[in-house]
Write a structure and sequence with these properties.
Number of strands: 8
Structural class: alpha/beta
Strand content: 15-25%
Radius of gyration: 16 Å
Shape: globular
Number of helices: 6
Distance between the termini: 26 Å
Order of helices and strands: EEEEHEHEHEHEHH
Strand order of the largest sheet: 1-2-3
């Protein structure tokens, strides 16, 4: 177990499950979707300087060439999960195609990390019974969000901060 001190208290990171244990302390879980990208190393630097951990839900088609970035994130106690292969809404695919999408992404991400991944988040948060079942078959527990930063549409740092902090 690792304990991470923050201004408002302490949260616990449990090595056996790799998640922040918010039953111990109120906390905010930071998650990032769609990477890894060109700015991921800079983001990892910021998280390291801030003493914060995050979860990265990565796209399978962005793993090649970014294995070192994913290994760094994993090595710095960030959790790495799967966000599908290409950001195609999985609900637009039949069950077989959803299964292939999850499985292919899991294989690439797990291969880069050298260990299995356990968490998934479908693109756009869209899911149906097939998505849930095929994620479970791929060994993934689906994770969601409570606050959407809308960073992709607001495109303004202060507006994103105001939205998130006003909600949190």
């Amino acid at each position: 177990t690792c304990r991470q001190a923050f201004g408002g208290g302490e949260v616990t990171w449990r090595a056996d499950v790799g998640i922040l244990d918010c039953r111990v302390q109120h906390c905010v879980a930071l998650t990032f979707d769609d990477g890894p990208g060109a700015d991921t190393p800079r983001l990892l630097d910021i998280l390291d300087q801030s003493g914060a951990q995050a979860t990265f839900f990565v796209l399978g088609n962005r793993v090649a060439g970014n294995e070192g970035v994913l290994q760094r994130a994993d090595g710095e106690f960030h959790d790495v999960g799967v966000h599908a292969m290409t950001h195609t809404p999985l609900v637009d695919l039949d069950a077989a195609a959803q299964q292939a999408d999850w499985s292919d992404a899991v294989a690439l991400v797990s291969g880069a990390l050298g260990h299995p991944v356990h968490y998934g988040r479908p693109p756009y948060g869209l899911h149906d019974a097939n998505t849930d079942a095929t994620a479970a078959a791929a060994g993934l527990e689906l994770r969601w969000w409570d606050v959407d930063s809308l960073d992709w549409s607001l495109l303004n740092s202060q507006a994103v901060i105001d939205l998130v902090m006003g909600t949190v």
